[in-house]
Amino acid sequence: MKKRLYLELENCIGCRSCLAACTQCGGHEERNRNYVYDVNPLVNRQTMPLMCLHCENPACARSCPAQAIQIHETGAVLSALVEKCIGCQNCTIACPYGIPKFDHEQNLMYKCDLCIDRTKDGIPPMCASVCPSNTLQWLTDEEIENKKKQFNLDNGKWVTSMPYLEGETNVKVNLPGILQGITKLF
Amino acid sequence: MQAKAAVNQKPGNTLNNAFASHFAKSMFLSVTALAILSFIGTRMFTHVDLNLYGYMVGTIVFIGGFFYRFIAWGERPPTKLILKKGLKLLFRKSTPKTSVEHLATYNFIWNRGIYRWTQHVLIGWGCILSCFVTFPLVFGWMYFTMDDNGHYNIIAMGMKVMTVPADGIIANLSYNALNITAVMVIAGVCMALYRRLKNMQARAEQKFLYDFLPLYMLLLVSITGLALTFMNIFLHGAGQPAMSLIHQWSVIITLIYLPFGKLAHIPFRPMSVLARNYREHYAEQGMKECKVCGDQFVSVEQSKDVVDVLGVNAIEFKAKEGHHLAEMCLPCRRKYRIAQFSGFPTHEVKVKEANQNAKG
């Protein structure tokens, strides 16, 4: 059963467990590849996570002169192949969400690979396994459909794609109901 | 694609018009160059080592695969751009230093780990040195003659370079060069195989065809090569003819595989010097300022190039404010996305992003 990462942004409590968990994924070499942002840092405590959304037409891979960014059969856009990445940093400029990180010492780009060692076997990625507030979830398409039924719908504001994102993504993002004044039913 | 290219060609370029495709032209020029070099090197084909003709044919098949793979790759918009601009900047002052660091001493791999660096130096330099010995012998660019008993003349490109005693150090190094490199490659490959068995990330991502096959091929080449030496010294040449065919077969298969698998990064890697020059040169020319915070984050040229390349791929990231998303620095681009989700302009709040680096 194919599962995907699903984000309910308004659940985020800013604990940064996902960052810490990311560092522990095999091959991440104790460096996290995701982000947590304060929405309005001088006013309130609302935070939101931001990670690679694994675009269906990834700009990073399209702009890579070395074909170092491969797309896994599960749809995950992988981190640069270490032997191919030539360190031009085109991907960091191309990504519409500013996700890829660059290590100048190693001359190597690294980005979220959706913990491919886990997700290729159906195990949730590190961030989703540790998230205490169900901001990051690992769900089948059917479960995501069921989620949809729990919300006040028909206002086009349920799940983000256009215009909140730049294109179709493999990771599904739920729009923040609280901030938009939409009540959750559970 | 080739038909279209022919239509687009400017009239008057007779050399290009003589060929049906880039591929045909590159093949013709390289095979001609090889033939001319061999003609000179072998003193008009009088010193061709026909024992090695299989390698000669294998090399030409390899060149075919190489051009097929790399011409297709060079046609990709971002690749073409870096190649074109990078080659123009080839003669920067920093090029020798960058080349040595990227292609000879592998400093960046040292920073990825000493184990991986050791393994890479052993395999990399083992292969490079082997090629320096093998190909000159195959094409007759280097051969040995003997005038006085007990003294070899080393002939390079048809010219006598030096005369060495047959039991001297240089002669012995020449006889054993491929044995030494074989031991280097075997040690390196064993380190690589051990890492692939133990490292969890490697275990998750590796594929037989992409990651293991080149290692097994290098191992096969080195072991059959050493076996030849073993048979000569200890078995008085028994089994040598059969083993030399097996060795030849393994080398030719490795050469044919090279442009299509992991080993393709060997001919491809010099691109990283071009990329470094490209970044350094255009950074000196002028830096792009982030549309939101004004930080200089990339060269104007690269920013423009990436936007163009995305355009070629029919990807347009226009922000509502009218600029392209690639014109924002990375933290601002991330905050801008948060702003699209929440409806609050996070990127306009003049606060540095909170620490985003968890210490594992």
Automatic annotation (TrEMBL), chain A:
Keywords: 4Fe-4S, Iron, Iron-sulfur, Metal-binding. InterPro entries: 4Fe4S_Fe-S-bd (IPR017896), 4Fe4S_Fe_S_CS (IPR017900), ET_IronSulfur_Cluster-Binding (IPR050954). Pfam families: Fer4_11 (PF13247). Transmembrane segments: none annotated. One of its GO terms (molecular function) is 4 iron, 4 sulfur cluster binding. This is Quad-[4Fe-4S] ferredoxin, HycB/HydN/HyfA family. Coiled coil: none annotated. It comes from the Bacteria. Gene3D superfamilies: 3.30.70.20.
TrEMBL record, chain B:
InterPro entries: NarG-like_sf. This is Putative MFS-type transporter. It comes from Cytobacillus firmus (Bacillus firmus).
